[in-house]
Design a protein that fits this description.
By secondary structure, this protein is mainly α. It folds into 3 domains: about 5-145, no CATH class; about 160-360, hpI Integrase, Chain A (Orthogonal Bundle), CATH 1.10.443; about 400-450, no CATH class. Helices cover about 45% and strands about 5% of the residues. The chain has a 3-stranded antiparallel sheet, with no helix packed on it. A two-stranded antiparallel sheet has the order 1-2.
Length: about 450
């Protein structure tokens, strides 16, 4: 059974106490591991006291002045970090210099029970931050939190060369041997959602009639994405999500059931048990491995859930989707600058293409990754850069859907602003044209092209 974040935090609290004197303990499915004793066993109580001070609803410990309460996920990470540091130093009998030297030793791999290559700077920043939070609480321990140095990590932008191509995407989709896996891959790729947002999604969070979804605000770990807009578009994942619910989901009419659940076993999956945090990555990993046998280039590209999020943003930027709309879709605050820095490499390549176009130099437009090799609704093969299926009219790209929605809204406004019957009749002609476009893919494509000019 998957553990939610509060349960993971509670389990980590238990391990902090259990491991204080060292010993061999079961860690997973009968596998055992040795844990060294803490330098000072009483540090177990201090570590938990530190966590109490940052719990949002704990009234017994005061949060240090100038600090904020933390989520269960963050506290779990802090506890895990301090538990790994505790065997090497007594927290109330040390100095900032000694702790900084220890962090360097962790990085260099010169500490017992640490892999030879050492720990990454990103991991050690969690350790260093945990130490700072500890000494904000225990400000009489003689260690100034601000003297604990933090490793700096270079911002690594997204490399466009690592993004999946159209044939690679189709190969991964075809590698799915059930609708759940295909719908899951499509949802990750075409909505840009994180692991937690995906696996906590419930049936009642879907509005399939309008091809949209909202995040499950009742869970932890959404990184405030739920605060940045309510409804988000299912985009190209809508068709496969609907097929999955209609054909495989054990409780498609139960609003409290999770959308993505375990595969059927002897007793059937429990629709009210969410997938484990590692399961989604494992599913996508299996799909990619199978697909790489047919398309070897997939093997050199990252396909974990967060990489698919990068793929979505890359696709959306290449298709000219407004950056504010992308931020809304992926849950970034409007003022956030993360997207701009992360995708600067992509923008560089786009600016180069625009410059070459300006001087009439040859450029090569990339195929649209949003245009599938096989339409998920009708099964036909659309042209490489089609914005919608020429046979069934399914919109593949955000700009296609947005253009039609804006046109409908403008027509409604025009009805209200019409001053005489002659104007009303003109608006009716346009309204009828848009209705016909919904039924005629060729006409719809021409309308969208005209609206985007």
């Amino acid at each position: 059974m998957a553990r939610d974040y509060p349960q993971q935090y509670a389990d980590t609290r238990s391990r902090v106490k259990e491991h204080r004197n060292g010993g061999t303990y079961e860690v997973w499915n009968g596998r055992e591991e040795y844990f060294p004793p803490y330098e000072d066993p009483d540090d177990a109580d201090r570590i938990l006291q530190m966590a109490n001070a940052y719990e949002q609803d704990n009234m017994l410990e005061d949060t240090p002045e100038g600090q904020k309460s933390k989520s269960p996920t963050t506290l779990k990470n802090y506890l895990s970090a301090l538990k790994k540091i505790a065997p090497h130093v007594a927290f109330t009998d040390t100095s900032a210099d000694e702790l900084n030297a220890l962090m360097q030793a962790f990085f260099d791999g010169d500490v017992e029970n640490v892999k030879d290559g050492g720990l990454s700077k990103g991991t050690l920043r969690v350790y260093q931050n945990a130490l700072r939070q500890f000494y904000y609480v225990f400000d009489d321990a003689g260690v100034d939190p601000e003297n604990i140095k933090m490793f700096t990590t270079e911002e690594k932008g997204v490399d466009p060369a690592e993004m999946l191509e159209r044939d690679e995407i189709q190969a991964i989709r075809e590698a799915a041997n059930c609708m759940r896996d295909k719908a899951l891959f499509d949802f990750l790729l075409y909505t840009g959602q994180r692991n937690t947002a995906t696996r906590t999604l419930r049936i009642k969070d879907l509005d399939l009639e309008n091809d949209r979804f909202r995040l499950n605000e009742d869970v932890e770990g959404l990184k405030a994405a739920e605060e940045n807009g309510k409804w988000r578009d299912l985009l190209l994942s809508s068709a496969t999500v609907k097929q999955y619910l209609e054909t495989e989901h054990p409780a498609p009419n139960d609003g409290d059931a999770y959308v993505f659940v375990g595969r059927p076993k002897f007793a059937g999956p429990d629709p009210h048990t969410m997938l484990d945090p590692t399961t989604i990555g494992a599913i996508v990993g299996r799909l990619s491995k199978r697909a790489a046998e047919e398309v070897p280039s997939i093997e050199s590209k990252p396909t974990h859930p967060h990489a698919l999020r990068h793929n979505f943003v890359t696709i959306a930027l290449r298709r000219g989707m407004d950056e504010s709309a992308i931020k809304h879709q992926i849950g970034h605050a409007p003022e956030s600058s993360v997207m701009e820095s992360t995708y600067s490499h992509l923008k560089d390549s786009d600016h180069i293409r625009e410059a070459r176009d300006a001087f009439d130099l040859e450029t090569e437009d990339p195929e649209s990754e949003l245009t599938p090799e096989v339409c998920p609704r009708c099964g036909d093969s659309p042209p490489a850069n089609a914005k919608l299926c020429p046979w069934c009219g399914l919109e593949f790209t955000p700009d296609a859907k947005k253009a039609m929605e804006e046109a409908d809204e403008q027509v409604r406004d025009s009805y209200q602003e019409a001053e005489d019957m002659e104007q009303v009749e003109k608006v009716q002609v346009l309204d009828e044209l848009l209705e016909e476009a919904d039924e005629d893919p060729d006409l719809k494509a021409k309308v969208i092209e005209k609206l985007n000019e």
